[in-house]
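Dear colleagues,

As part of the handover before I leave the project, I'm documenting each prediction I ran so the next person doesn't have to rerun anything. This entry is a single chain, and its sequence is reproduced below.
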Amino acid sequence: MRIARRFIVHGILLLMAATLVGEGLWFVYEPAPPSDHFVEFYFNESREAQLAGDLPTAIAGYEGVLKLEPSFAAAHHELCLIALGRGEFERAVARCAEAVRHEPDDANLLNSHGSALMQAGRVEEAIGHLERAVSLDPSFVSAWYNLTGAYHLRGSPELAENALRQLERLDPNASIQLRRQLRPEVERTLRDRGETSDH
């Protein structure tokens, strides 16, 4: 609520200062662009609201940050994660796409975008983002986890197996969890090759 009031007060002050009359001439007030510190402050306030479970305030805050700085990838990313949590997959895809557009070499953003695409049923597109994420950060457990699932959804058991093996090397517990979630045919492929370990 505090952050929403600050945005409203800020907006009112800008409107009051927007036009001034002096000797019959209109002068337009042009505020200086917001400092990085100012934008970062509002982003952090929004993040606090999100962590406290106040999603309407967090969303309003992130939207306000993006009005001040449209290329602030972290705000797009947080809005993507909120949309994913609400099951609004296409909205999440759009938000993540904006984040990746501004930070194309960020493995975390690529992973989130791939996850959103996968949940929206756009598996082929998801795979491209997830493959890029693991190429940028080969030790990124979450991206390997998502990539394994995406390969499985596409019906590529050998690629899923290879990704699962990499995941197993990085995080055996995540591998066990994913094995439990995958459909039986992937497990059957692994068993047929005699390459699974008993967990």
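The chain has two domains: 35-129, 138-199. Residues 138-199 form one domain.

All the best with the project,
I.
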